[in-house]
Amino acid sequence: VAKSDIEASIKEFNAEAENNANRAKKTHEKQRKTEERKEILNYLRYFIEGISTGKILFKERRIYTKGTIQNYISLEHYLRTYLNDCPHLKFDEITSEMAAEFRQYLSGNNLMPQTVNRLISNMRALVNQAANDKLVTDFSVTRHWGKAAVEESETRKEIYLTDAEINALGEMPLTDTDEQAARDLFLFGYAVGQRFSDYGDISKEDIIEFEGHIILDRRQRKTRSKVVVEIEDKRALEIIRKYNEELPRIEHTKFNRTIKNLFARL
């Protein structure tokens, strides 16, 4: 046998061995990623990234709204803290007891029942999505996330603030700049009667002056409806001037947490 033939055979053998090793490595890596995605926190982070970039779409191929994305970010915050002692928990390891404990944990964070229901609803949707992605083999875990009944009095409490409470917040002495920004943003939204998704990113282009009147002129994110609001509230006008018509930008979860803490201190 010629030496060149032997060298060619050895080269071919080595190439085939290298290809087999690469295939085995890729298969192992794919299996590792699949196992990692079976972990609830890993999958939730993957899901949030997907809906934020548009890679994962809602029913009928619609993108997720900014508000819904923020809800899942809030869910991750509470779930990550709750699973601090078992961060690698997988979907198949969820029990009805764990689901009930998580609901109690949310309620223990001074969240209103409707907010708890919303987070639980997000959790149910997440588990169902994981099941669609074939990351769940025990489908009983999808049935642990029912809504709790909300009393009418609790609903009223969730949506109602008195003028005295609003004024107390406005007069509250604050030295922390983040707290000041959240308070000012809340008071501005209260004055113009808009959703956070609409007043949370107001810029100079949205505020115009017409014949001596200050006007908020923008298109709502959720409904895409055009809204024109004359700003007459003295406090809101002071806030506009304070920030030179460029209101502060605050992440939704941080904003909610800050406002709740301020009212708790009041």
Mean pLDDT, to the nearest integer, reads 82
Distance between the termini: 93 Å
Oligomer class = single chain
Instruction: Please state roughly what percent of the residues sit in beta strands, choosing from under 5%, 5-15%, 15-25%, 25-35%, 35-45% or over 45%.
Output: 5-15%
SS-based structural class? mainly alpha
Identify the overall geometry: elongated
User: Biggest sheet, open or closed, and with what strands and sense?
Assistant: 3 strands, antiparallel
**Proportion of residues in helical segments:** 55-70%
**Strand tally, please?**
3
The topology string of helices and strands comes to: HHHHHHHHHEEEHH
Q: How large, in whole angstroms, is the Cα Rg?
A: 26 Å
What is the number of helices?
Answer: 11
What ranges have pLDDT less than 50 throughout 5 or more consecutive residues? none
The strands making up the biggest β-sheet line up spatially as 1-2-3
List the helices and strands and how they pair.
Layout: H1 3-37, H2 40-53, H3 66-82, H4 96-107, H5 113-132, H6 152-159, H7 163-171, H8 177-192, H9 196-199, E1 207-210, E2 213-219, E3 226-230, H10 234-242, H11 252-265
Antiparallel strand pairs: 1-2, 2-3
Helix pairs in contact: 2-3, 3-5, 8-10, 8-11
Can you describe what's shown?
With 266 residues, this protein is mainly alpha-helical. It contains 11 helices and 3 strands. The protein has helices spanning 3-37, 40-53, 66-82, 96-107, 113-132, 152-159, 163-171, 177-192, 196-199, 234-242, 252-265, and strands at 207-210, 213-219, 226-230. A 3-stranded antiparallel sheet has the order 1-2-3, with no helix packed on it. A hairpin with a 2-residue loop joins strand 1 and strand 2. The longest helix has 35 residues, at 3-37. It starts with a helix and ends with a helix. The model has no long low-confidence stretch (mean pLDDT 82).
